[in-house]
Amino acid sequence: MEFDNVYEDAHRAEAYAKLEFPGTYYLAYRDLPDIITEYVTGNKALDFGCGTGRSTRYLKSLRFNAIGIDISEAMLKKARASDPGGDYRLVRDGDLGHLTSDHFDLALSAFTFDNIPTAEKKLINIGQIKRLLRPGGIMINLVSSPEIYIHEWASFTTKDFPKNKHARTGDKVKIIMKDVDDKRPVEDVIWMDEAYLELYMKSGLTLLRTHQPLARKDEPYQWVNELNIAPWTIYVLEK
Questions:
Q1: Beta bridge partners of 103
Q2: What confidence tens digit (pLDDT) does each residue in 121-178 have?
């Protein structure tokens, strides 16, 4: 399947560099501190697919010694500008061979697997991450729930893409982000829960928890469907 890296784009990188944790994105990160406290020991973290460094800076705010890696130089340029003291490294797609094995206590992947197009490539990347984790280390894979592509949200709209409703694992889907200036559709690859579970089984990682955060009425956002439908899925896996 042809799938372009839409994030290797200076205009999109500029838009993403201004994005922090608004609206629906807030739910993706809200519960991570409690999850990390429960499952992770140690302070060495890898941000896999760090983009403009939002998640890397987040890990650093939680007192992790974090390294951010990405395949997009345009995104990394913004990450370094926002965090001059940070450690941001360009990697080739699927090639993490220069990083030390059995080193990291935590590997966070935030939305990255939404843009890895095939089961083969996903499994290769999970295998690379597994190699980098110390025994007992934790991978947190934060992905878009399939439902995000067929409903309306505080931070996203999909109403212009009715074909999303018929998408199956591995199909391309489109979504528009409402919190950035760049209103071009983002093209993702939808991946169902059972397909992720199969990948984890093949990788040899142990699934400890699946968490789907819902919004609360007392939170300071104009929720659309977030109170009843989870836009994100957080998988907690152990080496």
A1: none
A2: 999 999 999 999 999 999 999 999 999 999 999 999 999 999 999 999 999 999 999 9
User: What whole-number distance in Å separates Cα of residue 135 and Cα of residue 120?
Assistant: 24
HSE, side-chain direction, 13 A CA sphere, residue 236:
17
Distant-in-sequence, close-in-space partners of 153: CB < 8 Å, separation ≥ 6: 23, 24, 178, 224, 225, 226, 231
**Average pLDDT score, the chain:** 92
Residue 193's nearest CA partner among 175, 207, 172, 204 is 207
Sheet holding 65-70, edge to edge: 87-90, 65-70, 44-48, 104-110, 133-144, 232-238, 206-211
**How many other C-beta atoms are found inside a 10 Å radius of the C-beta of residue 183?**
10
Helix 23-30, helix 32-39: angle, nearest 10: 20
Residue 224 gets which letter from DSSP? S
Question: For position 18, what pLDDT does the model report?
Answer: 57
